[in-house]
Amino acid sequence: MATVLKSSVDLKTFAKEVRKLANDQFASPQYKRILSLPLNQKRAQVYTLQKAFWNLNRRDSWAFAQGLAPMDVKKMIWEHEEDELAGNKTRGVEDHYSLQVRQSKEINLTLEDFRNETMREGTRTCLYAWHHLVRSSHWLTSVAACAALEVSNSSDWVDGGGMSYRMGKRFEQDLGIPFHKQLNAAEHAEVDVAHGSLLMQVAERHATTLDKLDLMMTGLVESWDIDRVWKGQLAEMMEAVPGPR
Q1: What is the pLDDT along the chain (245 residues), one digit of tens a residue?
Q2: Domains of the chain, first to last
Q3: Which runs of consecutive H residues, i.e. helices, occur in the chain?
Q4: pTM, to two decimals
Q5: Nearest to residue 48, comparing CAs of 184, 174, 226, 188?
């Protein structure tokens, strides 16, 4: 088979399709369900504690992708994960898991609550699915699968803001917690703009054929498939708690 020249790879069309798919997530029944669900403190606690397992899964998934990727992409991922794992000294921000724990004082959660929380079966199923996707795929698929969730959390890609911003606004609206006091949500609303650019950096360097671009699209689509299921599972867990009165 003849080699497809890089000039025939249309990254503008690829980026346009990525943008459409990222925005389509928010039009899905699962996203609409969780973003329209009235919140009270207990529902917010369920969301936050189960999502903490997801946050740790993101670190695992990026590490798996980094292990599979070539050296230049390993460096990109290293720089991306530094904020998450070590914080940002320039901005005086600690690692993002610690930020989440500190933010959660606003809904009366403690570090012990995070340590004692049990992973629900729906959470476990989705996290295993992401592990399988990133560990067993071509490295381009693996990196794209991880990057998908940065893209759909970035206001550069998604009209109206990503999930961190939108849920932060729901906490503000329903629970009266100002967005600026939601330390982790506010931080992700900012840094995921930069993190969302990693996908196209990798595509520009390595998606030199249509087949390679297809590998990246596969990672995006399959990761977003899992993410819709995950949002539906989160909504179901929260709905099991009596709503606001």
Answers
A1: 333 334 467 999 999 999 999 999 999 999 999 999 999 999 999 999 999 999 999 999 999 999 999 999 999 999 888 878 876 666 556 677 888 888 899 999 999 999 999 999 999 999 999 999 999 999 999 999 999 999 999 989 999 999 989 999 999 999 999 887 776 666 655 555 566 789 999 999 999 999 999 999 999 999 999 999 999 999 999 999 998 86
A2: 6-30+38-239 (1.20.910.10)
A3: 11-25, 29-36, 41-68, 71-86, 96-103, 111-116, 121-136, 139-151, 163-175, 183-195, 198-206, 210-239
A4: 0.90
A5: 184
